Amino acid sequence: MNIFEAVKALALYSEREGLIEKEDIIFSINQVCQALKLEAFEDCEIAEIPELEEILKTILDYAVSNNLCEDSVVYRDLFDTKIMGLLTPRPSLVIREFNEKYKESPKAATEYYYHLARKSDYIREYRIKNDIKWITKTEYGDIDITINLSKPEKDPKAIAAALKMKQSAYPKCQLCKENEGYMGRVNHPARQNHRIIPIDLCGEDFFLQYSPYVYYNEHCIVFNSEHIPMVINKSAFEKLLAFVDLFPHYFVGSNADLPIVGGSILTHEHFQGGGYEFAMAKAPVETEFTFNGFEDVNAGIVKWPMSVIRLSGDNSARIAGLADKILSAWRGYTDEEAFIYAETDGEPHNTITPIARKRNGKFELDLVLRNNITTEECPLGFYHPHPEYHHIKKENIGLIEVMGLAVLPSRLKEEISVLADAMVNGKDITADERIAKHAEWAEMIMSKREINSDNCVDVLKDEIGIVFTSILEQCGVYKRNETGKAQFIRFMESVK
pLDDT per residue over 199-256, tens digit each? Predict the structure, then answer.
């Protein structure tokens, strides 16, 4: 495929996927030619439209060979996003179409919008498909495990260029509304093909978008129009419940508002949601409980490795009100026997990770109790992956993991393969720096399970799922035993 065939194929692809209309084809070809500094276009026949990845590769290779773009993943991403931005409908058109579809149904609106995000290459589907995913069966249900490979690592050249760049405060972060259409730079992704949908949550201006690195189906982000910090309070509960009222086919949740137990971006208020049912949502209430004054709200402890209170009912205002009482009680709650401290040396430790959904017409709000205290043995957090599991996951347990989807580091792809080979062939695991950290774990696995060349990788994946489940149990502030249950109920009884 030559450059002219690629340009025409891109225009035809864009028409087929609804990015442009038939009447826009010549205009779009000329726009792309201008970006490629092609003074003329040679028309050609396209018998079959190739995959978008192939089309863009041809265009990027041409740009590199003609000194329009440097040959590295960061610069190529900047350039092909610029190209796709020329073919993505303007924000006003996207919003208008979304609102028209919403009149049909909320699901029709999000289906249109998700299609646009994928076909405009804002979500790079050809990278997402490289993610490694599997399910581990546990006593808590089917836990989702993923090794995310869709987010490209920066190359040394781009890192060096970023260090030399003047620091910019525009956009303030990757969630800000100013990202829509932004050209990007080596230390900030291009977003010319990014479109956001304005929504009202309890009288506040928010926007809906999809995550470019989707961890699950229709992984969306709901963010405040203003760059204000994350906070968990009654207003946050009300906004989560308002969102699922607008989009009852989606769940939505918030990372906690403290370091260690919070998300990666605590500086900008945002929620995450989507069209996926996590294991935690399927988990049943195992111990029912009635809060005084809120007899109309069903409540109880969820059968889950972390410490979760589920509230449900018809009245979202009553659920938010009770959630606020639970949060207020938890913020100031100390139970030395359970190693729960509201604060040490003036630093607050208690907060909540909330998740909202609608089920059978009723509102549901899960409140996951979190605490970010550190100890000498666990300097990264006591209710955090403990050091013995850092060879699998060392990073924070945020909203997505709380619900039962492990997001594991990309290094594990190679390490699983190398470790399986070493285990099957009796190699010295400690001698290979890539897998030495797994040696004790591998020895434990071989002592309890029969392995061979056919099953070793699957065994390792299964054991990774078991490790992740154990990590979630470590992150639960109350242990999954009778003592922990009594301590949990003691807290719930303290809520006034």
Answer: 999 999 999 999 998 999 999 999 999 999 999 999 999 999 999 999 999 999 999 9
Do strands 405-408 and 141-147 pair parallel, antiparallel, or not at all (unpaired)? Answer: parallel
List of E strands, 139-248: 141-147, 197-201, 204-210, 220-224
Task: Give CA–CA dist 145/126, Å, rounded.
Answer: 20
Looking only at the bridges linking them, the beta strands covering 251-253 and 350-359 are antiparallel
- Backbone phi, psi, residue 130, to 5°: -80, -15
How many CB atoms are closer than 10 A to CB 240? 29
pLDDT band at 325, cuts 50/70/90?
Answer: very high
Mean pLDDT of 54-78: 96
Q: Note whether 323 and 369 are within 8 A (CB).
A: no
Neighbouring-strand partners of residue 272: 221, 253
Q: Which amino acid is at 415?
A: E
Given a contact cutoff of 8 angstroms between Cβ atoms, the answer to whether 305 and 286 are in contact is no
pTM: 0.92
| Strand, coil or helix: 74 | helix
Average pLDDT over every residue of 455-465:
97
The closest alpha carbon to 285, from 496, 492, 495, 494, belongs to 492
Please check whether residue 262 is in contact with residue 214, taking contact to mean a CB–CB distance below 8 angstroms.
no
Q: Which ranges of 130-284 does DSSP label H, i.e. alpha helix?
A: 156-164, 234-246, 279-282
What is the rounded CA–CA span in Å between residue 328 and residue 7? Answer: 58
Please give the C-alpha separations between residue 206 and each of 45, 199, 263, 486, in angstroms, as whole numbers.
45, 5, 19, 40
Q: HEC states along 336-348?
A: HHHCECCEECCEE
Query: Which of the four pLDDT bands, split at 50, 70 and 90, describes residue 158?
Result: low
Q: pLDDT tens across 373-392, in order?
A: 999 999 999 999 999 999 99
Helix and strand element counts for the chain (H, E): 16, 15
pLDDT at 137: 96
How do residues 413-455 score in pLDDT, each as one tens digit? 999 999 999 999 999 999 999 999 999 999 999 999 999 999 9
Distance CA 77, CA 278 (A): 32
In our burial notation (b when 16+ CB lie closer than 10 A, e otherwise), range 15-36 reads bebebbeeebeeebbebbbebb
CB 342 within 8 A of CB 350: yes
pLDDT value at residue 163: 57
Nearest C-alpha neighbor of 272 from the set 403, 150, 174, 400? 400
Closest alpha carbon to 237 in 288, 182, 297, 186: 297
